[in-house]
């Protein structure tokens, strides 16, 4: 054990990042060199209640406390130190969604997550009104849809925020959001790095006939950018996060961010012409733009980096869930056969098999649509595997097809950026569970985007590490030092990176698969309509 690390912990020079992802809440404690010194996590799953994908407030706090306690126990076991002081804390969570509170700070309706495709009318009307793409999962779309549905709670709204904003508010008393996360609530004015005033006025006029007691600006959080302090941990907040009472109050918090922003930071892809792909339960590609897009594209969302630069986002609701279910089936088969298989080994073996398949996946087709998929206009999904009598049906092609389709919907959005908008991309950084098996997810993504794909040794660290880096930037930056410079000089200077360049045969094979994917959407539509 390093005495340096022990001293760092005892003197409170650490930074804690906690991210509430779709399936896991992860807490990461980093030292002065930005490497992880302790971590803890808590697994959770969304519930489908009354046609809404949600997590209960009780689950949020139970999961946060659990992941914090597991991290603090890790500190105790490794270094023999009780964690009481931390230099800074940051919270991040899955973006978007809808959390509305009344004047007594009570949640008015269950949390509606990004996964709900229930705001189609609102999304279309607001996109037209603002001439700016408003995706279904954005908070403003949820709010307006609730108004269109004449939901009673809308007249009682006192404050509206996202999951990251909610946690931050309860721990600091501050109703704020980092600009990257805020850009998934409502459009941002790139000059002021605040919510777009003109569009706020347009919205207020639109809903004026309802005679609400509130104006939009009054119920939205304040927007702050990376590097600004966004409050301190209150006494109540400290007890809420750490019921043992060991954690001291007064710790500064950085602006709460969304998982898209922390993914950009964790992969050092916040500079223009860089992009990153996060591939887990959902998949999204983020590309930092050099200029505005020429027009509104329903498949492309515009958000910002945590320091307020414009980012095009091609987001698909589904990525690895169906793939994981198939791997689970193989695991079950091996158990029935009396063969004990390590899950990681199983993933690695099956993923590597995919590289042995035909370039196009042998004529097989699948859709991992566990839920709806806005990119291809499905309100609900049916996971589906299809083959023709002439397909080359073997394990390698089966796995390859499931990896292909994990990126299929996202690829449709990326094609618009690259082919129609002529966006220049030098490289893409991959992170998330799909890239854990070395070289496989990378090769498939390089074929899909026809661009080099890099994975860093820290790729598995993910968003919790990303928000910890934002906390570190807030307390350690020099005067005038930008986030980009801070990351380049202090965090990623000696990072080892593995890059895979696209193989022309694989690129051609992926294009053949995509033709099949687009043509086969009629089969998915029939499955949704006829299979209950």
UniProtKB/TrEMBL annotation:
Key words, A-Z: Kinase, Transferase
Pfam families assigned to the protein according to its UniProt record, in alphabetical order: FGGY_C, FGGY_N
GO molecular function list: kinase activity
Protein name from the UniProt record: FGGY-family carbohydrate kinase
Protein family according to the UniProt entry: Belongs to the FGGY kinase family.
UniProt domain Carbohydrate kinase FGGY C-terminal: residue ranges: 276-474
GO biological process assignments: carbohydrate metabolic process
Cited InterPro entries: ATPase_NBD, FGGY_C, FGGY_Carb_Kinase, FGGY_N
Protein's UniProt keywords contain Cytoplasm: no
Residue ranges of every copy of the Carbohydrate kinase FGGY N-terminal domain listed in the record: 15-241
Key word Transferase present: yes
Record SUPFAM superfamilies: Actin-like ATPase domain
């Amino acid at each position: 054990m390093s005495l340096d690390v022990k001293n760092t912990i005892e003197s409170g020079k650490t930074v804690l990042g906690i991210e509430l992802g779709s399936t896991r809440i992860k807490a990461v404690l980093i030292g002065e060199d930005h490497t992880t010194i302790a971590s803890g996590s808590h697994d959770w799953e969304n519930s489908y209640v009354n046609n809404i994908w949600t997590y209960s407030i009780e689950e949020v706090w139970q999961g946060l406390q659990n992941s914090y306690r597991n991290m603090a126990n890790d500190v105790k076991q490794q270094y023999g130190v009780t964690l009481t002081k931390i230099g800074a804390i940051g919270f991040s969570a899955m973006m978007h969604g809808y959390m509305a509170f009344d004047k007594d700070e009570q949640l008015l309706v269950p949390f509606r997550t990004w996964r709900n495709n229930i705001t189609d009318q609102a999304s279309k009307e607001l996109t037209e009104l603002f001439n700016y793409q408003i995706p279904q999962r954005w908070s403003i779309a949820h709010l307006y849809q609730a108004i269109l549905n004449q939901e009673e709670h809308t007249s009682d709204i006192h404050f509206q925020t996202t999951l990251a904003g909610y946690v931050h508010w309860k721990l600091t008393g501050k109703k704020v959001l980092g600009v990257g996360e805020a850009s998934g609530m409502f459009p941002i004015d790139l000059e002021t790095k605040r919510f777009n005033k003109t569009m706020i006025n347009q919205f207020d006029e639109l809903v004026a006939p309802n005679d609400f007691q509130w104006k939009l600006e009054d119920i939205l959080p304040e927007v702050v950018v990376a590097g600004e302090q966004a409050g301190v941990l209150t006494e109540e907040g400290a007890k809420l996060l750490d019921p043992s009472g060991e954690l001291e109050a007064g710790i500064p918090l950085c602006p709460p961010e969304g998982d898209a922003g922390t993914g950009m930071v964790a992969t050092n892809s916040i500079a223009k012409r860089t992009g990153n792909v996060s591939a887990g339960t959902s998949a999204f590609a983020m590309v930092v733009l050099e200029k505005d897009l020429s027009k509104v594209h329903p498949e492309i969302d515009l958000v910002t980096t945590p320091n307020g630069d414009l980012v095009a986002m091609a987001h698909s609701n589904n990525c690895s869930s169906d793939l994981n279910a198939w791997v689970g089936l193989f695991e079950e088969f091996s158990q029935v056969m009396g063969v004990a298989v390590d899950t990681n080994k199983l993933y690695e073996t099956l993923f590597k098999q995919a590289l042995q398949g035909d370039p196009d996946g042998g004529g097989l087709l699948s859709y991992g649509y566990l839920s709806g998929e806005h990119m291809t206009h499905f309100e609900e999904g049916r996971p589906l595997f299809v083959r023709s009598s002439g397909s080359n049906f073997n394990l390698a092609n089966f796995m390859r097809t499931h990896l292909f389709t994990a990126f299929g919907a996202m690829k449709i959005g990326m094609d618009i950026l690259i082919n129609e908008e002529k966006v220049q991309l030098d490289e893409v950084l991959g992170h998330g569970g799909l890239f854990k098996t070395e070289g496989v997810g990378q090769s498939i993504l390089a074929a899909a985007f026809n661009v080099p794909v890099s994975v860093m040794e820290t790729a598995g660290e993910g968003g919790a590490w990303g928000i910890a880096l934002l906390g570190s930037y807030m307390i350690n930056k020099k005067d005038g030092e930008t986030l980009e410079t801070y990351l380049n000089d202090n965090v990623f200077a000696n990072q080892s990176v593995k890059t895979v360049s696209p193989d022309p045969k694989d690129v051609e094979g992926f294009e053949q698969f995509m033709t099949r994917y687009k043509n086969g959407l009629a089969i998915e539509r029939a499955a949704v309509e006829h299979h209950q």
